[in-house]
Amino acid sequence: MKALTRGRKALGPVALGLMVTIAMPVSAQDLSGKTVEFVIPFSESGGSAAWANFFAPLLREHLPGNPTTVVRYRPGAGSTAGANWFQEQTIDDGTLIFGSSGSTQFPYLLGDPRVRYEYRDWQPVLASGTGGVVYLPPDLGERFDGDFDDLQDEFYIYGSQGATTLDLVPLLSFKMLGLDVEPVFGVEGRGDGRLMFERGEANIDYQTSSAYIQNVEPLIEQGLAVPAFTFGALDDAGNIVRDPTFPDLPSFKEVCEATAVCETSGVAWDAWKAFFVAGFAAQKMVFLPGTAPEEVVEMYYTAFEEITGREDFLELAEAELGVYPQLTRTAGQGAYEAAISVPDEAKQYVLDWLAEHYGVTME
């Protein structure tokens, strides 16, 4: 199967309208001669690395004083180690920003005892939505016809950062589809899971959109991988629809509806959707430390507004990240709030499932 086309046409006018908010006065801050460190808590081979490296040079252009902007990697414990480190930082002059992802949000939401960070202590300045694509090796991909009824007798290996990371969404998807999937926990980033797939050590994988575009579409073009489905996207009414970046691929909802054992109603579906929303609607966020003063926050708001307001931004973002809203100020705050809260019933379902299937408890 050829790599599938993408286009901004699939992103509705409401979502596009959210990408740029009303411009505010330029901050009086000046970062001339300084270096901004953009820290992400993952290895340099995954989607967060691609996302951070997309924004870093744009920030250099639009932050006052055009500071050198570098991406630093602090992987470990499925991103928890890096987030715990950031919690202790008090650099308040705008030279330190942190990029989180769903793999940082989920341990926080589930009460993972390794978590020593508090999202509400941080100051969000950008929320980036994204998607995710599940793909298979060619021998399994050629048997996929829109459902997994004929693939449930296979044994799958999946490289995972951990059951309480963003991998929770694909792992729960696999369970609902009736697949026998053995996760190999402990990979430092989704890029490491992809490398397992490329080496033949795993036979099912998923990547967030930016990593999929950069690293998996070339595999598809070479006939080394076949896309199966995306997790989808939310429309304005909160329904799961096709991912606008990959409109030719079915959503998980479509595949679930087509697979006999999978249901799109009930507690499992409600839990899946809740964590999908928490993990993907604002899947990656940029934070300043809680100590940063208002003028530094305003400086970053302004920089991100200028970036997303560029005439070439949609074209640049589509090629690197896919077609998703980039939110700041009030819209970004709303996405941030959705990302760090899930209903109690969904949380309890996931906690029970993690304990039963993986022996993972939050003690």
**What is the global morphology?**
globular
Could you tell me the radius of gyration in angstroms? 20 Å
Roughly how much helix do the residues carry, as a percent range?
A: 25-40%
CATH homology-level superfamily of the largest domain: Bordetella uptake gene, domain 1
* Class per helix and strand makeup: alpha/beta
Please report which band the strand proportion falls in: under 5%, 5-15%, 15-25%, 25-35%, 35-45% or over 45%.
Answer: 15-25%
- Kindly state the number of beta strands: 13
The overall average pLDDT, rounded, is 90
The spatial strand order of the largest sheet comes to: 2-1-3-12-4-13
Distance between the termini: 45 Å
Specify the CATH architecture of the largest domain.
3-Layer(aba) Sandwich
Largest sheet: 6 strands, mixed
Characterize this entry briefly.
InterPro entries: BUG (IPR005064), Bug_dom1 (IPR042100). This protein has 363 residues and is of the alpha/beta class.
Can you lay out the helices and strands and say which pair or pack?
Blueprint lengths: L12 H6 L16 E6 L6 H16 L5 E6 L6 H8 L8 E6 H9 L12 E6 L3 E5 L1 H4 L13 E6 L7 H9 L3 E6 L4 H9 L6 E4 H13 L4 E5 L2 E2 L5 E2 L10 H7 L8 H15 L2 E5 L5 H15 L4 H8 L5 E2 L1 H11 L4 H15 L5
Helix pairs in contact: 2-8, 4-10, 6-10, 10-14
